[in-house]
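I'll show a sample.
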Amino acid sequence: MAVFQSAGYALRFIGGCVRDALLDERPHDLDLATDALPDRVMALVDEADGMKAIPTGIDHGTVTVLVDDERYEITTLRQDIDTDGRHAVVAFGTDWQADAQRRDFTINALNMTADGVIEDWTGGFADLKAHRVRFIGTAATRIQEDYLRMLRFFRFHIRFGGDAPDPDAMAGCRQFADQVTQLSGERIQDEISRLIVIPQAERALVLMDQVGLLRAAMTVDVSPDYLAKAVAFDRYPRANGLLGCRLLLPDDQAQLNQVADRLKISNAGRRRLISTAGVAHVDWSRMTVKRLRLLAFREGREAAQDFLWLAVTRGFIDADQFTAFHDDLAAWEPPALPVDGHDVMARGIGAGPMVKQALSHLEEWWFDQDCQADQAALLAELDRWQSVQETHANSNL
């Protein structure tokens, strides 16, 4: 701030860090705004000792500054020239009030000077004290500038608002809910991921469902109640965002693939979602520790735990069964099968589906033996299984 002030420019903390500081919370990001143009910001920082400027978003006026390994984002004051609900054409300016008026919510439009003076052009300070989250101006206007603001509203309401959401905001979200389809999958995924891991996210999801926004964003019918059932358990892993997302979704492989496509979920995330599609087809009345361990062995411990969460929230198992299975999985270390595909093919089984079938059979047999059988015993079982398969094939000739 001293560097900018000495050059005749203002530099102030802006937005979320000011809001969090007023709530006695430690800010996650330290964002600043200035009336200096981006090229001038770069020059001032590069000329200063111990600072480095990185033009991370310079076309939109943002420069990242490194100071003693700490990152600060400095953005030049802006005004929106044109918006289409996804992108904005901006012009740089020097008007702090105009910059505040273009932001989303009143509580995010506060700025603070170097000597701690708060500047509030939108009534954000009063809203913060009243636990009220509202759009600057009208919700309809702000939403049409960027449809992502609908998703952001519910996350901010749950964090900073009271029990009842702002009526104007709810009306605006209901009016434009279907427009969320214009947003990229990456932007939707990022916002859903941020929301679903915060305390009381289930409340936000219910509200989003009421205005039709959750269905429009996820592209399939969702069930927020399942997440509410999961978080009632003390051991629910709130930070596990993919599990939280999966709890909302239907148990249908095609629809899970549809969501993965829409939200641009990673290949690993997609596999984890799809691996639990058959939860309703599992005979949970016959589920044992051995069978669940086999599932974890094949799909991974995380996927098996997802199965358990889905099973208990959908009523396939009760809380006591869930606890017993969950505790066993948490303590269990998956062993290594003493044979592999090369061993199978060495027995004369050609590469292809038969190798997979043979290994699947060996895995089940091995787990029935409590994973105690050694390689020789497994190969003997493989020979027996192969003989049965050949006899069956010959009988069908």
Observations:
- The beta strands are 11-14, 31-34, 51-57, 62-67, 70-76, 78-83, 88-92, 111-112, 118-119.
- The chain has a mean pLDDT of 93.
- The first helix runs from residue 2 to 6.
- Residues 150 and 173 are 6 Å apart (CA to CA).
